[in-house]
């Protein structure tokens, strides 16, 4: 069935951070009540960073011990590198809440790109106890939207758009570097996907991506959970052309 798509528009970036953090907590609380654990994949970028900081400040008492953190993509850099998505999430959130270190599954991007992707596939298979030819069902996956319509590290024209291996070492020509990224089979198996979009520089691409019945011209449009909720939380500046 097609995903249930919801668009929430908040007046300010701060309002967006609050709405996203509240949804994170609500989805996590429901998942823990239903299944005893909350599985979530974090995103990089400045907008998720604002939400992570708020989560650390306002929700330290959330049930972090039954929360399991993964990453939807990573730059091909070591975990202490300034560009590392893991480093950003660790500095703004993970190091500030009582989550066990064993509950955090970072992408081992200090390895060569292909082995790093393969190693992360093995982590997913082991944690979710996957049988052959199945993919994990995350309770929540966080995503952002790039000005070219990319999300995670699924960039226009890149090989990862047609790959089905769960995690792919994607060469991004405009950066002349690899990105390690979830692929559509993982994104579209999630129980909920939450896009966070902020700022006037995202207004035009947001309008294009959210057009009714659009042709699929942008990678973000390929995120269509097959049996889940698709939530867009955006601020007024990003939504001004909708």
Ordered list of secondary-structure elements with their pairings:
Elements: E1 4-10, H1 13-35, E2 38-42, H2 46-58, E3 67-71, E4 73-75, H3 85-92, H4 113-128, E5 140-143, E6 167-172, E7 177-182, H5 184-187, E8 192-197, H6 203-209, E9 229-235
Describe the overall structure.
With 242 residues, the chain is α/β, with parallel strands linked by helices. It has a single domain, classed as Rossmann fold (3-Layer(aba) Sandwich), CATH 3.40.50.1360. 29% of the residues lie in helices and 20% in strands. The protein has six helices and nine strands. The protein has helices at 13-35, 46-58, 85-92, 113-128, 184-187, 203-209; strands at 4-10, 38-42, 67-71, 73-75, 140-143, 167-172, 177-182, 192-197, 229-235. The protein has a six-stranded parallel sheet with strand order 1-9-8-5-2-3, covered by helices on one side. Strands 4-7-6 form a three-stranded antiparallel sheet. Helix 6 links the parallel strand 8 and strand 9 (229-235). The radius of gyration is 17 Å and the shape is globular. It starts with a strand and ends in a 7-residue tail after the last strand.
What does the radius of gyration come to? 17 Å
The overall strand count is 9
Outline type: globular
Low-confidence stretches: none
Q: Distance between the terminal alpha carbons, to the nearest Å?
A: 25 Å
Classification by helices and strands: alpha/beta
How many structural domains are formed by the residues? 1
- Count of runs of 4 or more consecutive helical residues: 6
Give the strand line-up of the largest sheet. 1-9-8-5-2-3
CATH topology: Rossmann fold
What proportion strand?
15-25%
Average per-residue pLDDT, rounded, comes to 96
CATH structural architecture: 3-Layer(aba) Sandwich
* Main pleated sheet: 6 strands, parallel
- Helix-strand pattern: EHEHEEHHEEEHEHE
Which range best describes the helical content: under 10%, 10-25%, 25-40%, 40-55%, 55-70% or over 70%?
A: 25-40%
């Amino acid at each position: 069935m097609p995903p249930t798509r919801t668009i929430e528009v908040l007046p300010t970036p701060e309002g967006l951070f609050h709405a996203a953090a509240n949804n994170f907590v609500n989805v996590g609380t429901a998942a823990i009540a239903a299944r005893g654990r909350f599985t979530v994949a974090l995103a990089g970028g400045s907008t998720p960073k604002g939400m992570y900081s708020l989560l650390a400040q306002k929700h330290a008492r959330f049930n972090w011990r039954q929360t399991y953190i993964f990453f939807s993509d990573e730059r091909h850099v070591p975990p202490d590198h300034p560009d590392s998505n893991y480093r950003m999430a660790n500095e703004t959130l993970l190091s500030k809440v009582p989550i066990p270190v064993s509950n955090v599954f970072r992408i081992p991007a200090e390895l060569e790109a292909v082995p790093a992707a393969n190693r992360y596939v093995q982590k997913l298979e082991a944690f979710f106890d996957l049988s052959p030819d199945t993919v994990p069902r995350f309770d929540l996956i966080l995503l952002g939207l790039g000005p070219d319509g990319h999300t995670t590290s699924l960039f226009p024209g890149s090989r990862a758009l047609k790959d089905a291996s769960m995690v792919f070492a994607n060469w991004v020509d405009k950066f002349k570097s690899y990105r390690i990224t979830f692929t559509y089979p993982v994104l579209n198996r999630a129980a909920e996907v939450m896009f966070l979009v902020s700022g006037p520089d995202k207004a035009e691409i947001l309008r294009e991506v959210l057009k009714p019945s659009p042709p699929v011209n942008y990678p973000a449009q390929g995120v269509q959970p097959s049996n889940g909720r698709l939530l867009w939380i955006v601020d007024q500046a990003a939504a001004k052309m909708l």
